[in-house]
Amino acid sequence: MTITSPPGQEVSPIAAPKAKNQGGGFLRYLITRFLLIIPTVFILITVVFFLMRVTGDPITAAMGGRLTPDQLAARIHEAGYDRPILIQYFEYLGQIFTGDLGRTLSDNRAVTEVLTTYGAATLELAINAVIVALLVGIPLGLVAAKFRDRYPDAILRILAILGYATPVFFAGLILKLVFGVWLGWLPISGRADWETELTLTGLQSPSGIYWLDALRSGNMQAFGNVFQHALLPALALGLLTGGVFLRLVRTNAIGTLGREYVEAGRSRGVSEFRLTTKHAYRPALIPIITVMGLQIAMLLGGAVLTETTFEWSGLGFKLAEYLTARDFVAVQGIVVLLAIIVAVTNFIVDVVAALIDPRVRY
User: I need a surface site. Which of 6, 63, 209, 281 has the fewest CB within 10 A?
Assistant: First the structure.
């Protein structure tokens, strides 16, 4: 039986049932991707737990040499680190399910308190870096595609490779030296001046994201101060991902500009600017959305070096401090949180990619 279709278009008997099952296909894809989060997070938690035990128990790692052998043995027994490793592992899994990640050894704080206190700063840095990456990668990728195999394209590709290959801490030091020390245009450390921090942290129900709190309160002076402090860290971290976005947009836009419908528009006199910005723009976003989850993981990894370089009080900065203090309980909690964030982000990115491009679902 042949399904009727408009002139010039034929619909195969198999195409119609697929169209009916698109909703079911997306639901299956959604459930499958969500269920994959569980084993992913479980494996990451397991790997982190046993890696943290390679050098011994956390008490000995953090306080060995500062306590007498008797005091050390008492602390180890009190914390339960003298029990079999598998018992400790299953107890730790039970604590995670109840939201208890333990207490830090160096400053005796609840790990969940550390995560909530400093997590907003890392989230703010990641958002700023993503904004920079998108503002740099998408427009310059379209420019490179428009001037394919010409000087602008060659220069932009070299800059993209340099941006991706340059270590984030080195880029941060160069930015601090040029814009902070030599030119004196921007501050080189911290999230804001201390007066601004006192103002924003004193707000009712602050989010911890300074520029958002400044906008909510209508304090544009504080927003300007926060923006100045955030610019260099965002550039250092955002250019790393911006180079990846530039190359992805360029490659996909070149493929789109060679399609038949673009050639037809060109033959009708449509301007190259319109062809690039309208016809090549949306398809060029699909690969960016697809790899966004991987880039979020890269941003979180780069946040450790960026926050340390700019003394940005986030999870990366605290993670470096706890590593120096060999506080493996705190390190374990922070790494577990980052792993969960990466897994959930990848799920969200996959869902958005499936909504934009239905081929992803099958």
Answer: 6
Closest by CA to 249, choosing from 352, 155, 156, 174, is 156
Residue 22 pLDDT > 60, yes or no? no
| Average pLDDT over all residues of the chain | 81
**For residue 208, is it within any domain?**
yes
> How far apart are alpha carbons 321 and 284 in whole angstroms?
40
Q: Which residue bears the tokens 């402090």?
A: 229
The structural domain count of the chain equals: 1
Tell me, yes or no, whether 10 lies in a domain: no
- 244 is written with which tokens? 């990846």
Distances (CA, A) of 220 to 101, 217, 273, 279: 38, 9, 36, 38
User: CA geometry: angle at 197 spanning 192 and 202, to 5°?
Assistant: 160
Q: Which domain holds residue 254?
A: 120-361
CA dihedral 234, 137, 139, 355 (to 10 degrees): -110
- The full DSSP string for 115-135 is HHHHHHHHHHHHHHHHHHHHH
Lowest-confidence region among 55-69, 80-94, 235-249, 314-328: 55-69
103's torsion region: left (phi>0), alpha (psi -120 to 50) or beta? beta
DSSP state of 21: T
Q: Residue 73 has which token pair?
A: 């043995």
Give pLDDT, residue 10: 42
Q: Is residue 107 part of a domain?
A: no
Q: What is the CATH number of the domain that holds 332?
A: 1.10.3720.10
Alpha-carbon distances, residue 2 vs 14, 19, 20, 22, 169 (angstroms): 10, 16, 17, 21, 63
